[in-house]
TrEMBL record:
Subcellular location: Cytoplasm
Pfam families: Mur_ligase_C, Mur_ligase_M, MurD-like_N
Pathway(s) served: Cell wall biogenesis; peptidoglycan biosynthesis
Function statement: Cell wall formation. Catalyzes the addition of glutamate to the nucleotide precursor UDP-N-acetylmuramoyl-L-alanine (UMA).
Record field: catalytic activity: UDP-N-acetyl-alpha-D-muramoyl-L-alanine + D-glutamate + ATP = UDP-N-acetyl-alpha-D-muramoyl-L-alanyl-D-glutamate + ADP + phosphate + H(+)
Protein name (database record): UDP-N-acetylmuramoylalanine--D-glutamate ligase
Binding site for ATP: 119-125
Keywords: ATP-binding, Cell cycle, Cell division, Cell shape, Cell wall biogenesis/degradation, Cytoplasm, Ligase, Nucleotide-binding, Peptidoglycan synthesis
Highest taxon listed in the record's lineage: Bacteria
Keyword Nucleus: no
Amino acid sequence: MKNITDYQHKKILVLGLAKSGIAAATLLHELGAFVTVNDQKPFEANPAAQELLEKGITVICGSHPPELLDEGFELVVKNPGIPYTNPLVSKAMEMQIPVITEIELAYRVSEAGIIGITGSNGKTTTTTLIYNMLEKGEKHPLIAGNIGTVASEVAMKATSENQMVVELSSFQLMGVDQFRPHIAIITNIYEAHLDYHKTKENYAKAKANITLNQTEDDFLIVNADQEELLELVSFSKAATLPFSTKRYLEKGVSIREGKIVYFGEEIISLEEILLPGEHNQENILAAIAAVKLLGVNNDAIIRVLTSFQGVEHRTQFISDINGRKFYNDSKATNILATKSALQAFKKPVILLAGGLDRGNGFSELVPYLSGVKALILFGETAHKLEDAGKQAGIQSIYHVDNVEEAVPLSYKVSEPGDIVLLSPACASWDQYRTFEVRGNIFAQAVHKLKESR
């Protein structure tokens, strides 16, 4: 960690706890700041606030009172999930108090090089692939951000020998000032998080902040198959390294005659790669671009791609039971993610889907259901998904109470060679606390089924 004095004796407000708030408050306290933490959860039910108080940090709990800013704070470090419409945040901006997220702190104190990964889909898989490839290439990576440990906490321990591989959300990137990754990646841009950003333009602009401060000495890896994305980052000063799954690029990473090619150099055949789907090919190309820039050899890349079976809950292979392959894609909490998962498989699919009803229909999923031979549905959206299945001409549609019941039924209605895919196209909150819980229950049910066969 850099020995900086930027925050010494400054009054700083950390707004919102959770993991990022705890890490930010702890870091700033160590850097000599006068830190106040403000969290909505009452103090009596807030173990994190109690722990910070014991360290000598001022803690105010129960609400976010705007008058708190009258105490003369010089900086606000905001939890990414708190919107800028929050009265306290709005007042801070009116008072021209800088409002940042903890990723900015991580950048300022990190001695390590930073690889930042953002995009609508594929962030976690790309981040994990890069980490694994760097590890195999002996480049001493540390994983951080939305995946793994909070970035500022990792930055406290990182040295110049490390590479920080950081997954970044649009919420985090709205709160940057000097943040400048040496290598930035934007996997793709689709419409998302409009409840927070209000418009796709605002959302895309937040994503583009990843390259805002990059210079000619930095690199921007970008999806060349999205013209909209190329236009979005046309302002960037970084050296652009494009990737494409749809056309061959002489200067970039692409696919030629069934092989991944980096600036004309063949790396690996697609047939050797375990991770299924064109959407994962995008993630693989982006990851290869990043690690090649850092000198990772092809052997390390190949070893990862011939063994990596997917990130947990993201088209993750669980097991083969008598010729039926079971995949956990519980992270597919929207239609777009389920579309991508369905496109990944050429064999017949038994699709397990359903969940929280957010008021939307599923007609746009219909064209992607052509390879689905049976639908097993659960949750609030089961009947809406049944309508979509009927539009797609699916004859075998079943309703069950939950994911656990769906697994043995999926085996019963499937045949050797089929794919059983949990890809709900919905959030989990009608039945499960998180998509991770939903995915874990699916995996447990698959293992239980396998033991009984």
